[in-house]
From TrEMBL:
Homology family: Belongs to the DASH complex DAD3 family.
Subcellular location: Chromosome, Centromere, Kinetochore; Cytoplasm, Cytoskeleton, Spindle; Nucleus
Sorted UniProt keywords: Cell cycle, Cell division, Centromere, Chromosome, Chromosome partition, Cytoplasm, Cytoskeleton, Kinetochore, Microtubule, Mitosis, Nucleus
Lineage: Eukaryota, Fungi, Dikarya, Ascomycota, Pezizomycotina
Protein's recorded name: DASH complex subunit DAD3
Residue stretches spanning the membrane: none
Domain of life of the native organism: Eukaryota
Entry-linked Pfam families: DASH_Dad3
Single GO MF annotation: microtubule plus-end binding
Amino acid sequence: MDPPPRAHSSLIASPPELTPLEQEVLDEYERLAENMRKLASHLDNLASAPASEILDGLRELERKTSLVFTLLKASVYSIVLQQEIDWGGQGHHGEGEGGGGGHHG
């Protein structure tokens, strides 16, 4: 059972044998493995929590998401309305001078 760890440690001890791309791939796999461990830990915590606690958390998240969506819609509406006001004011000046600006509609 000792040879595999020694073989593994000899790979770690001799990084010049790896190309930069290979080292980058190994680093990404290491980060992925760590993220998977964190995800598994979070999922274990969620699975062990009572269902009512999870539902309360989801309801709170839904309320916050709904509020953010409402604020986003209001912001977009405000931006669009402001652009229409700006373009409307500029459009009337440009149509009279440029000619052909408002004759399509």
